[in-house]
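note to self: dont lose this again. the chain is below, predicted strucutre after it. 496 aa total, dont forget to put it in the shared folder this time
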Amino acid sequence: MLLAADLAAFRRDVEEAEDVIAMSLNRISGGDVVRGAWGTEVRVGQTFWGFAEQAYPGGPRTSTFLAGDLEQELSEAIASRVNRLSVIDRSAAQDWVDAHPEFATMIGLIDPQTATKMYAGMAAESTRAVVDGEEEAWGTGPLAQLFAVAPFAIGTLNGAPATARDEFNRETLRRVLADSTSTEEQRTAAEQTQKGLERAQESSPDGTVVQLVALELPDDGGERDMRAAISVGDLDTARHVGVMIPGMDSSVAVSMDGLVGNAVNMQDAHVRIGNAEATATVVWMGFESPGADPLSQEFFAEEHLAKKGAPLLVRFLNGVDVANPAAETTVHAHSYTTRLATYALGSSQFGGAEVDHLVMYGSPGIAESVRTVDDLVGVPPDEVYSTKSVGDQLEIPLDDVSGVPGYVDDMSSTGDEGQAGLAEVGEQWSDVRGEDNVDPNDASFWAGREPNVFESDGVLGHSADRTKGSDGYWSRGSDSIKDGARITAGRGNEVR
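---
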């Protein structure tokens, strides 16, 4: 009976949300002309649907957008569901969670501001206690219940404290590793994540805080559907936060252990440049990365994966900002994810994030909607930086795209120059597809400003990691990673 009542309440939540959306739809008309509630034409972009709101008749009109309404309604409905799961009978809550495994992937849609308030309210009603003679855990209240039946509800909650997300995500990780019914994809991703956590701890100075700040391991997901983010350093108290986003052919299941090494290297770079302020570096693998098979259709990254990943990055960054508003945040994007990051920081429907600094490494071209630095409305134009190694600027003569596979196979097999020229090949491949992606290292991108383009001495190719004959952009002690640390610390004026 409790489960039936619970489902009925959820159905009412959905129906109420649908009613609100339907009311919004009734106020707009199709085509390029949008009319407000009183029939007056509202000037909006041709690619948007919207309606005009007035606080009172005759008052100023504010254009809003249906997508925003839908997002807000979803946020509130999902938050309501989490609140309900935290207080109803525990067995009924567990039954509902078991019947709706897809719900775990929806928590990230909750608005970070809402999430912060929701978590604070739950924490005030919960108590911690020593469990089984070991360390403290949530013993009573809403957080104790969610820890028992749905740890993902806090672990993936953008806007919740990183310490809480870490505790709940580690419980999810423990369960996946202990569950004999976990899929091969889940287990592989979980094992890589566990190795990443261990590597971060073992490779960092004693006392370093390591936090698992995102984890999604859907039981119906493939290798590239797994998501995770690990912070080296305390994300709740850091004065400077760096978010590193790896390029193509990255995944939690294959790469997480190695990717964490990049974050460790960045933390080490802060020490090398003498930055004594508290820092945290996150490796964010919260998106689907394109594969690197030169014969596949997505090689060198079709635009849709960047557009798909950008809103996920927006939510994560907004969550970091809400949870630690005193921190300065820097996005470090390598290769393909310079495209994803510029969508997230641009003014298109895929944007909405705000950061203090952006650093792009080895870009094969950025978001199509971003033509100049001024289009990056989510970051100050003077705090945008880019670098491309000498080897990465090598232009490979291609009569047609059939030359790409052989070139990539050759460079991948030798590795001596870290796949030199791949950024240029990526630009050519985009041109073949009819895409127009600006190179942030070109003077035109800077719109008359002095370009913030710095050299990557010692990097001969495209790789983020060190190769046999070359530093990588993010390899330990490289000039480029030290410059990245300087920019993160607010010392961009020192970058060459």
